[in-house]
Fold Nuclease associated modular domain-containing protein.
Amino acid sequence: MVQDGCFVQWREMIANAARKGFAGGVAFQWNSHKMLTEQLRQEWLEKVQQRRSMPRPTGNRRAPKTPEQRRKIAEAIAAKWLDREYRERVCSAINSYHGTSSGSKVPRKQRTPREPGAKREKKKSIQHRAVSLDDAHAKTAPVKRKKSATPYKDPMAGEKLEMITKIRAQRTALEIEKKEAIERARYVVLFAIRKG
């Protein structure tokens, strides 16, 4: 106890001497980190306020094109499309992106105009859909999974198993203790009721 008190006093004396510095030295500010943090926070808040007070540009950020600029752009695009090599590159890139072969077009279904009050007919019943799903599952071959040549073996598996068994044993012991405590409490309550 006495040693602890002496240690605390010495620590405080050393800290005070370090703060004051040696004779004729400069006293340091030990809370300079807090002061700098507060100063930086104030500067950040000022910048945020300054940004909020600045007027925001409205409308489109790009400058509007004059009719002459639009005409020049259109001519440049038309000249590019006249180049066969460029046209083929662009078309092949579009086809590869969309996954279609060149020159093949998927015909669209033409919609028939319906009367406003007419209801659509249901195409397939639920049972028919279920049968078609079963057929689809039967037709597809099962996917074979690759088995790795060397299956992974956890080097810590034994230790983990021991830890799990210990935890289970601890939990069962706690459950038994809880049950015993509940039984004792019931016994004490019954005993108090009988005596009282």
